[in-house]
Amino acid sequence: MAVGFATATHRGSGDFEANITLVVIVSCILAANGGLMFGYDIGISGGVTSMPQFLKKFFPVVYKKTQEKGIESNYCKYDNQGLQLFTSSLYLAALTATFAASHTTRTLGRKVTMLIAGLFFIVGTVFNAAAMNLVMLIIGRILLGCGVGFANQAVPLFLSEIAPTRIRGALNILFQLNTTIGILFANLVNFGTAKISGGWGWRLSLGLAGVPALMLTLGSLIVVDTPNSLIARGKLEEGKAVLKRIRGVSNVEPEYLEIVEASRVASEVKHPMRNLLRRRNRPQLVIAVCMQIFQQFTGINAIMFYAPVLFNTVGFKSDASLYSAVITGAVNVLATLVSIYSVDRLGRRLLLLQAGVQMFLSQMVVAVVLGLKVKDHSESLTKGLALLVVVMVCTFVAAFAWSWGPLGWLIPSETFPLETRSAGQSVTVCVNMVFTFVIAQAFLSMLCHFKFGIFIFFSAWVSVMSVFVLFLLPETKNVPIEEMTNRVWSQHWYWRRFMDNDENGHA
Ligand code: BGC
Question: What is the pLDDT of residue 507?
Fold first, then answer.
């Protein structure tokens, strides 16, 4: 997720002299851990909540409902606020932690913030894997959420600052790719651990999060802080020395001067949030906020969080549900690669619009199949129809993964001007976490009440967001980041009216 350029401390028009050095490569591996950790947390909860032993221990009421045939509606077996809280509490904590994280990234630097994230992840993982009761389980999720809040603010920032300009864009989507790999890894782990006899497989599932957590922690001890962060905190000489080391060239003066200048400009903005609310920053703000709300209202996390539960609901056995979740996880990774390849060729708008049609159609097919075939108390789908549902879910996930997944993060990060970039990024992460929380907390109850209509609900949202893209989202492909105002906003049929206002924010 979250990405790039969130700092108000760099980036000009120049592509400075730079080699791709070992330090930069090590940093990419670090990013992998931040993204993997985030993805692992997204993917692990659904599989765990569909494991009978886990339910028996922590949610006996839900367990009973899943065992009794014909009493509870198929759609309502998992409708339980506590069970949803197990998934959603992480995002609530992440959202809160984002505020603290934006402070520590600024005052203590990216490196220390990543270390804090790693420590939260480790303690959270221990609580989860060793949980004896629901309280321990939820505390563990909250700690992991704090880790996500800190990591998602610091790691992408760290990456975008340490990378040479020419690979910054690709790195931006690489973070998303790592998130999808984390989700897939979690799906695979659940598939394996569900088979462990003795009923402790869920502990292993939750405990294996310790691997990326430990790697992130150790990694953050090894790496240097970014030159941008050092310079912004007044450590000019150290910043210059680090810049030389990471670029692997001796003449870093032009880049160094630009960072110093950008730091100065950024430090003059005394009230970043108030600045963000000015009329002339309205287009970017509206787009960033809408992109996050829309990204979550595609319904993607209904699948990412609850695919095994969902497949179980429509009649798959436990094994087949976990297996199907692995397939959707793999499609998610592969389709993200498509995005990396095509985003600067086909452009953002085309990907979003094409995906809108594909997501709409696949959700409608799922709604029709479930509407006709999955009744409250009837038995499962036939093999052919079950396959059709899995194929349609995959078609939906693929479309998301080459559009709203990465672009939901990329577009806000590339449209804010330097002076609002940092505040803009915090708002972007926060809004995303709020709506991720909402979906995590509400989906199983919505499934119970809307039944197959839940997919019609999401497809209606997909139509709304596609219309938004069609009329209000300008193309930002190949536009240098500091030229957005002149080349994009001032040219747009609607947003240009926000560009000709005075400094006090009046039109
Ligand atoms: C979203 C997550 C989602 C993931 C799926 C990300 O861009 O922010 O909420 O789970 O994509 O790959």
Answer: 37
Best probe residue, ligand 1, of 301, 336, 338, 458 (max atoms within 8 Å of C-beta): 301
pLDDT at 94 over 90: yes
For atom 11 of ligand 1, which residue has the closest CA? 405
C-alpha–C-alpha distance, residues 392 and 361, integer Å: 9
3-state secondary structure of 108: coil
Would you say 88 and 138 are in contact if contact means Cβ atoms under 8 Å apart?
no
Domain boundaries, the chain: 22-498
In the reported structure, the alpha carbon of residue 373 is separated from the centroid of ligand 1 by a whole-number distance in angstroms of: 30
For the chain, give the percent of residues with pLDDT over 90: 46
Look up the pTM and report it: 0.86
User: Measured from the CB, is residue 35 less than 6 Å from ligand 1?
Assistant: no
Which atom from ligand 1 is nearest to the alpha carbon of 406? 7
CA distance 295 to 335: 16
pLDDT value of residue 202: 94
Enter the tokens of residue 239. 């910043």
Q: What is the pLDDT of residue 1?
A: 40
User: Is the CB of 176 inside a 6 Å radius of any atom of ligand 1?
Assistant: yes
Report the sign of the C-alpha dihedral through residues 492, 497, 502, 506, in that order: negative
Fold (CATH) for 22-498: Growth Hormone; Chain: A; (1.20.1250)
Does residue 173 line the site of ligand 1, with CB under 6 A?
A: no
The pLDDT tens digits for 483-505 are 778 889 989 999 999 987 544 44
Burial 444-481 (b: 16+ CB within 10 A, else e): bebbbeebbebbeebbebbeebbebbeeebbebeeeeb
